[in-house]
Design a protein that fits this description.
The chain contains 8 helices and 4 strands. By secondary structure, it is an alpha/beta fold. It has one domain: TIM Barrel, CATH 3.20.20.100. The protein has a 4-stranded parallel β-sheet. Helix 4 crosses helix 5 and helix 5 crosses helix 6. The longest helix is centred in the C-terminal third of the chain and has 12 residues.
């Protein structure tokens, strides 16, 4: 359909780096959608968020607060709670700010339907983390690729 001019851009959802690479043999990958949160950082640490940046494609992050079943675990998260206290925001706002901090190409998909939740998301977007925050986060959680993942991305 892309070759026929019916579709301009193609994106992928719930894929691995290997699947993105395989798809790139057939078409230009213009967006990647996957789960990303302070609770589930796997796609970031395995390098998928970094690959999206390399491709200049947005990384559309869903379940940014862990999904319905895990959303309350953010309240006790050892990295998010101190960050929230330091900036006088809710733990959920701090957790969302951490996802936004993963890169300018990361777009959290927010399912807020009530105005107070939308306002909360906007507060999270306005939160600016500094070097102290980043150092504290890196010590506890990280959204950067592991050394092995970074090396694999570089080998391509």
């Amino acid at each position: 359909m892309q070759r026929e001019g019916k579709i301009a851009h193609l994106g992928l959802c719930n894929v691995s780096i290997a699947e993105v690479r395989q798809a790139q043999r057939h078409f230009s990958v213009r967006a990647i959608q996957n789960e990303l949160s302070v609770i589930d950082r796997k796609r970031a640490t395995e390098g998928l968020v970094a690959l999206a940046a390399e491709l200049e494609a947005p990384f559309l992050a869903y379940r940014v607060l862990g999904g319905h079943a895990k959303v309350d675990s953010i309240l006790k998260n050892r990295a998010v709670a101190p960050l929230a206290a330091r900036h006088k925001v809710t733990p959920h706002e701090a957790a969302l700010a951490v996802v936004w901090e993963a890169g300018p190409h990361v777009v959290p998909l927010i399912g807020a339907t009530r105005s107070e939740r939308i306002d909360s998301c906007l507060r999270a977007h306005e939160l600016r983390l500094d070097e102290v925050d980043r150092a504290a986060l890196i010590a506890k959680i990280s959204l950067t690729p592991t050394p092995e993942a970074a090396a694999a991305l570089a080998r391509r």
